[in-house]
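Support reply, case 0932

Customer input (verbatim):
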Amino acid sequence: NELRAIVRKNGSPLIADCVDLIAFTGIRRSEVCRLLPEHIDLEEKTLLITEKKRVHGQTTYRKLPIHLELLPIIERRLNNSPIFTASVNTLTAGLRKALKGTPFEKRGLGFHVLRHSAASRLLASGVPVPAVSAILGHATPQTTLSVYSHAFAEDVANAIDLL
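Our regenerated output:
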């Protein structure tokens, strides 16, 4: 929330909206860039996320519910195509500029950190791994487990305390 507030204060509306989108969906920066008006269903309140797989070159799709905090952002940007920007470089440069001179200005902090934060928050809240995997667009829950195994270290310690 602190990062979101700093970006909302120091960054452009585009960057702030993208930070919120990733924080509330866990989607990838490249998926933000592919989001088109036809991928939004305001009646069902869903986003259709497209992902181009590097290995096989195929495009996959997943539907995510739209978080209530995102509705005003999406409604405001719905007339744009793409909805945010087609350029990952625009997003990266905009985030760096928004974070300059803040505690968050450090090497490696980018949009992907927001994706990891979303996943870690979901797992810490007890959301089942298969659901987190589906939200993130991982091929299998095992991928989620391998990437976020560190999130379970505290659970192991708490489980031992129960014995």
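We compared this against your earlier run and they match. Two observations from our side: DSSP finds nine helices and three strands in the chain. Strands lie at 40-41, 46-52, 59-65. Please reopen the case if you see a mismatch on your end.
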